[in-house]
Write a structure and sequence with these properties.
The complex is a heterodimer. Chain A contains no helices and ten strands. Chain A is mostly beta strands. In chain A, strands 1, 3, 4, 8, 9 and 10 form a six-stranded mixed β-sheet that branches. In chain A, strands 2-7-6-5 form a four-stranded antiparallel β-sheet, with no helix packed on it. Chain A starts with 8 loop residues before the first strand and ends with a strand. Chain B is mainly beta. Chain B contains no helices and eleven strands. In chain B, the strands form two sheets. In chain B, strands 2, 4, 5, 6, 9, 10 and 11 form a seven-stranded mixed β-sheet that branches. In chain B, a hairpin with a 2-residue loop joins strand 7 and strand 8. Classes of the chains: A mainly beta, B mainly beta. At the A-B interface, strand 3, strand 4, strand 8 and strand 9 of A face strand 5 and strand 10 of B.
Amino acid sequence: DAKTTQPNSMESNEEEPVHLPCNHSTISGTDYIHWYRQLPSQGPEYVIHGLTSNVNNRMASLAIAEDRKSSTLILHRATLRDAAVYYCILRDEDFNKFYFGSGTKLNVKP
Amino acid sequence: DTAVSQTPKYLVTQMGNDKSIKCEQNLGHDTMYWYKQDSKKFLKIMFSYNNKELIINETVPNRFSPKSPDKAHLNLHINSLELGDSAVYFCASSQVAGTGGHEQYFGPGTRLTVT
C-alpha cells in the first residue's frame, strides 16, 4: 500500500498561515494526493486534492513537489474552527481506495 | 439536508450478539464505503460498493457482511460481535471517478461498543 508520513501534531496562532507537510515517497504515477480533516467527534471532511500541479480552493492551497514525493497543505489564515486532525491521503485510482495515514493534529491558539 | 446519514449514532452491545448499522446517501453517488476508526484513530477502509456491486473488500473477517439494497444505501451487518470490533464506523460515498479524482463525503459515524 502507498503510505504517507505526517508530523503527529502542529501548533499555530489564530489568523496566521499554517503549512502542513506530508511525505509520500512511494507515490505512483496514478495516485492523487487528497487532504481531509476530521473535527472532534465528526466524520472526515474533504479539503483539497491534486495530481501534479498546485491547487487552490476556498478552504486551502495544495503545493505539490516537482517529484511528487511530498506535498504541503496551506491554510492561509488559521481560525479556531480549523483545529482538527488533517490527513494526507493517496488515492489509488485503479482500485478506488483511500489510504489514510495517522494524520497531523493541528492546534490553533487564540 | 444531510448528505450521508448513519443509524444508530451509538450502539452498545454484548459479545456474541449480531448487529446492523445503516447508511444512506442522498447525493446520487454511485459508490459507497465503510471505514473503521479504531481507538488509536486510524481510519481503515473495509468495503466499497459501486452500483450495488462489491468492489473492495479489505481482508475484513467474514463476520462483517455489507448489504446494498440500492445504490443509495449500504448497510453493515456484524455477526458474533467481539471486543475488538469496538470502534467508530464511518460510511462514505463518492461519484465514480473519471480521471479527475473525486472527493468522498463521510457520515457522522456510529460508535460501536462491545462489552
